[in-house]
Amino acid sequence: SQEVEQSPQSLIIQEGENVTINCSFSKTLYSLHWYWQKHGEGPIFLMMLMKDGDEKSHDRIAAILKEKNQQSSLFITASQCSHSGTYFCGVEAQ
Asked: What's the confidence (pLDDT) of residue 74?
């Protein structure tokens, strides 16, 4: 079975701070997806990464896939109150 772990588990940040969330996985993947969920709402798809070195960005949010390291990182630059919520990754294994 695919093992996926995120770190840190939770964050309290000040507006304007930069944020990094890491997702590690244990198996060869087909794709990795990042999602964002506001309290009381359904998850929103942010981006999909498919190969080593893939990098996507949207507004102040970016993500990179380092498949050789079995890791992906999500970055929020100059965070705003509107960024608050739960961020999580999902992996589609080969």
From this structure: 97
Q: How far apart are the first and last CA of the chain?
A: 11
CA-to-CA distance for 21 and 11, rounded, in angstroms? 9
Give the three-class secondary structure for 43.
Answer: coil
Radius of gyration of the chain (CA): 13
- Burial (0-12, 13-18, 19+ Cβ within 10 Å), 66: middle
* Average pLDDT, integer, range 44-61: 95
DSSP annotation of 65: E
Taking CA atoms, 82 is separated from 1, 39, 60, 61, in Å, by 35, 12, 11, 12
Residue 50 class from Cβ within 10 Å (0-12 exposed, 13-18 middle, 19+ buried)?
middle
Place of tokens 């995120």: 6
As a whole number, the mean pLDDT across the chain is 92
- Reduced to 3 states, what is the DSSP secondary structure of residue 67? helix
- pTM score, two decimals? 0.89
